[in-house]
Predict the 3D structure of the following.
Amino acid sequence: EFLAMDLLRFFEMIVMDYPNIVSLVAVKDQEHFMDVYSVLEQGLAHFYIFREASPLEYRLNIKNGIKKIYDMVLNQELIYKVKSYNEKLVSDVAQKDQKLEVMNQEKNRYLNFLIHELKGPLSSAKGFLELLLGTELTREEEENFLALTVFNTEEMLRMINCLLDYARSEEYGIELSKKRVALIKSFQKMEASFGIIARNKKLELKIEYPDKGWMVNLDPEKFEMALSNVVTNAIKYTDKGWVKISARKESEGYLLEVADTGRGIEEEEVEHIFEAYQRGRRTNDIQGTGLGLAFTRKIIDAHQGTINVKSPGAGQGSLFRIYIPF
């Protein structure tokens, strides 16, 4: 008769070597095999032993049973992993297809939008040129029409350049050619570029020039492009009043401010104003790509600077602040 102590020792061996893997069922004889077979098939017990078996038979049966269980577990894990990976692939492909569809719709929407935006200044420029060619005008009227024609053509060029520059920056980042320059030169260019435009809109362009000795290490072309984007928006979205450009020196850099008495920005739009293709609800009647401020932030970030905006609300003007380190 098989000793209970020997059986207990075998069980202890199994538990120590294979914890949480195998369950054992002791049956009286082979007649009980069918009684436990269904239980074994359901996974409630993984192996069975006969009371009449010898200790060696017990050991061999248990080892064979454990190997069988181990192989079964590995196969089940492999099947589960393959199934899970396949489900993930199917899900990823579906998500990418959906994303591509959204991107394609967005591309078509934006192309239609850009064509519409370019049509406005192009039609205006054409109209002003036709007036110059076919109408008797005073010298002052001719100069005004020419200035407006130049403004509209520059606006179209700015839109196209902004689109190209933003796409290039998305792929390659912003490359800077820094040099030491006087900050006042950028302010002088702002007055030369926007003075006539502001006067034609009957706006006052206020410029508080920095000291001639205020030097800064930056890429003049890209920095002036960023500043121009901010000033352009200030003038475009201000119907009456003034636009003011100023700067002050701080401990480790310069803080530039562009303030206006324009249409302002609604509170819920402020946090999205520097995102690509974002335009406020109050700007639908004015041409624009929705990329100017997004590209401006990229340029300022590349200079290790910051840009932010504050607005009391719709119709109450805006204040853009640009910080550039020395």
